[in-house]
Amino acid sequence: MFTDILIDVLERLSRLARWQKQALVFSGDMLLLLLSVWVGYSLRVGTWILWSEPIQQMLIGCATMFIPVFYFAGVYRAIFRYAGLGMMKTLLKAFTVYTAMTFLVFMLIGMSPVPRTMGLLQPAVLFLFITAARLGYRFLFLDILKRNSYSGKIRRLLIYGAGDAGQQLASSVSKDPQLALVGYLDDDAKLIGHRLDGLPVYDPDPFEEVLKQTSATDVLLAMPGSPRQRRREIIAKLSTFDLAVKTLPPMREFVSGEVSLQDIRPVQIEDLLGREPVQPNELLLGRTIVGKTVLVTGAGGSIGSELCRQIIGIGATSLVLFEQNEYALFSIENELRATLKEQEIPCSLHAFLGSVCDGRRLDTVFSRFQVDTVFHAAAYKHVPLIEDNPVEGARNNVLGTQAMVQASHKAGVNDFVLVSTDKAVRPTNVMGATKRAAEQVVQGFAALQCEMRCSMVRFGNVLGSSGSVVPHFRKQIENGGPITLTHRDVVRYFMTIPEAANLVIQAAGLARGGEVFVLDMGEPIRIHDLAVTMIRLSGLKVLDANNPDGDIEIVEIGLRPGEKLYEELLIGENASPTKHQRIMMAQEGFMPHDELSKSISRLAETNASSEIVSLLQTIVPEFQHRRDDLVEAECASEIQGSKLRFASGRIQAKGDTLQAK
């Protein structure tokens, strides 16, 4: 009954106009001023006196000083229900000035018959009263009114990290009625067992005990300054529990030093798979970039666009963007121009639409600039699409590379770098075969001439690229599932886009001509495990035969035509180290230039898909078209049987539930 009346009164007060709320708070402060004078004087004389001449004189003097000081300090411009650190700073400023004035008037100058000590005693009592009042406003309007007006499910939060970021985050959490902070987690033994703002700081190990005590549903990582390796270890540990895990980005991404809920983002799989970056070799970065004119093909793609971002930051004099997709070119050009303007980078930017297969267009672009370095990132890369369109795939990836090499050589380019893929190693699909053929085009050209340094950089999947499995899985989870998996035994290498682009540029700095550089991709990842981890990081459960009450089902749909169960980075075993710990160099064989030229000429003339495949098998002898499709066929009946068993089990479970009802 009392709670209902209180909520009704608070709701009426919250609907008042702003000036009315300010008037109420001011009136309340004047009442507290009267009380502080009365309480302060009574404490000073040792007996309770309701009214006397000293109280009257002091009240007039205090009010004369209080009103202008608190008005001009901005005390009444604050939003009272959000009283926090900012409000306390404003109050401290106002009270510092107010106390100095009362000290001067009552203590130094004196006002008979007011005791001189009242110059300090009254401000102290008033400060306690007003601070308590502000905290009371916050409690009534935020903790009682707002939380009682929210009828949805309240998430119980643990904040991992009891430092400054964690405490600032806790302040933001307290303003959200959907969230209830239940404690902190921290690795610091000095903090464990203590309380922050009345909430306990738990030891995260064993975490099962913490979950039992708190019934937490979410964990927010407030460790923006921690090394990536440490954050990854924590996230990996938390991902084994049914929790929604969110995190603050690294400290370098903050514009200001303050932390709020707006900075929180869901933990992404990149936080688990990304590695601690290695300090780049500035000499390698600068050799092909600093003070030079650089051209990037496929400038609007995942790797191409990141290459462009880093190139302007390293110190290129001029950057030429070449892209056949109009919107992609428009987007990256606008982004780069904004960066150049904002950071005042002295680099000229030029954008050109065109296809790498169009030799005349390439000659036109090269004729306008004295290009020093070319990063050839333009390629068709989606395996199923190229399986269905092998003619266009071969033209773009093979003939386009040949046209780029020839145009670059004709224009006097110093360094030519082909961005390749691990799918070029013992390919089982047309896309991988075209990329291995493109590598051989560059290798053959490097063997014929020495004026232009030609090199290739080969790496695996990059996280977050268009068509990548990670954003695909993320979208499926957001839509409620299921996650479609081609095969539970598929494994892939992963690397973040910025790291891949940075290593490509450094590999170019190592080139002397004809090298195939291979990036250290770390350990391969099982895609099924990736899907399970992404589901758990979203605070959901996997729906399977062992957990029929789960949220997201993982469904195997079978390998796509030409898809591999596993990827490789080397054709042979002859990789040698370089000056960079994450860049290896492979000396791999290639078809003699004359024979390669004949095969490529036939590629250019044919429109038959079967002949394209046959020619690619000639150029790339290790190309075993759709090799792993046989494995898929052998597994298909077993997978289908498991699906039927799982489906019948779910139907039986539902039937048992209905019967029980």
From TrEMBL:
Limits of the Polysaccharide biosynthesis protein CapD-like domain: 294-587
UniProt keyword Transcription regulation, yes or no: no
Residues annotated as signal peptide: none
Positions of transmembrane segments: 23-43, 55-79, 91-112, 124-145
Matches recorded under InterPro entries: NAD(P)-bd_dom_sf, Polysac_CapD-like, Polysaccharide_Synthase-Rel
Keywords: Membrane, Transmembrane, Transmembrane helix
The family this protein is said to belong to: Belongs to the polysaccharide synthase family.
Protein name according to UniProt: NDP-sugar epimerase, includes UDP-GlcNAc-inverting 4,6-dehydratase FlaA1 and capsular polysaccharide biosynthesis protein EpsC
